[in-house]
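Z., the sequence and structure:
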Amino acid sequence: MDFKLSRRTVLQSAAAMATITALGIKPEHVLGAEGGILKVRMVGDIQVLDPGYMIGGAETSALYACTPRLAVPVHDANGNWTWAPSAYVEKVAQDDDTHISFTLKKGLKWSNNGGEVTAEDVKFSFERMINSDWSARWPTLDHVEVKDSHSGVIVLKTPFVATWLLGIASESGSILPKALTEKLQDAKFTTEFPAQCGPYTMTEWTPKQKMVLKANPDYVGDKPAFAEVHFIDVEDTKAAELAFEGHEIDVTSITTETAARYKKSLPAGAKLVETPGPFYSWIGMNTDHPLLKDIKVRKAIQRAIDVDSILQGAYAGVSPKAFGCIPIGILGHRDAAKYSYNPDEAKALLKEAGVSGLKLDLVTLNQTERIAACQIIQANLADVGIEVTIKPVDSGPFWNLGLESKGDDWKNLQLWIMQYRCSPDPSDPIQWFLKDQVGVWNWERWSDPEFEDLYKKGLEEADTKKREQIYLRMQEIMEDTGAYVWLTFDPLFYAHADTVTPAFESGGEVRAELCTKA
């Protein structure tokens, strides 16, 4: 890994140096912050920076830092994600249910002799998303009407409240230079921006090694705190943690196991931050399976599983307890469930259902914490007379299990541990449980008319309190099927140098332009 940067030997011990070397990283090439440089670990290399075809991770960080947008995600007074006008606009506002007007600031210049950022760039950037890989973030966009060189109106076919967080304020709301992008093959790009206009510009990329952002001298907003931000590709988490402890990386994600250790004793010069992850995990049950068709059996399983023990034994006691599928910090997050761990009630429900000697398969991804969780579930269900066989599966075949398009495995699916990722609007995590997702991602295979109706209302309801009640009720309906045991919202833990105050976007990626010096 030849970073071609000044070398320094600051690893704290020969043991740490030997371990990092054994993991394939040369100590002299893993550098911490020096002067105006912030070093951030990225888990995987960038592949596609184009907002219509990106994958995520450090690509998201680059898009926020190097491209303009009309709005940005922020937290409201209650800690929920909402939006605010960006530094690139004079104004942006919801005029009515289907019209959003905007006026760009004048004098915003594209790099690469791209000229000024205009309303035509906004129109081009948003309308190309309709046919992109991320079109689901703009489901009701009709077109963008250009009023003059710097102002226009976003026109929706039907109301969609989530347009702000899923589209406009996200990386999917990145504005591109129309003229320069259209010159590219298929009007797409991968690892090099056609032009940039942000607090930073990406100036260097070495595949599988690092991405360098440098402060943009032409940026008209607040100047970023660091002259440079280096995203260093260290895919092995343990190697990244050792590099951090050797003061060679300033910000890195860490495992829950390490987070638990750091909570007891932090390394010198370190701080720990927990951000609500965009993940939600649960135990699912196939309501179509003959052994699980009886709701009394499903509710018995709900009450037989000790989630608190799972969080302690499989998640190191640092992961929050879930009471629904909408994560912390998102409107509609639920802080209580209608059931609790109660083995006696579980036994009574099984007796009422006339069920004894029940044997079930529990499928999980072949990951350490999932296996540990399964073992606790296995013991819990044994206590009420249910015999469970744990079946670890690799990621490829696992994600095909509930898909009817992939064969008949869904017919034999009984219990499983599942984790989904979501964007910061309640419509996103809950959409996968609709009727049209049965045989796709609704592996529990149920449907409910009230649930369907509420989903449509939730997309259009502008009143925050009314919208919150919609999603709270939808999660209650899910729970009442007996097909869900809520587990956790897997948090994201970051360790960072105490000289740095990191900032994150709603998905947990580092917002380089918002990081400051402590």
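The first strand starts at residue 37 and ends at 42. Confidence is low (pLDDT under 50) at residues 1-35.

Let me know what you think.
H.
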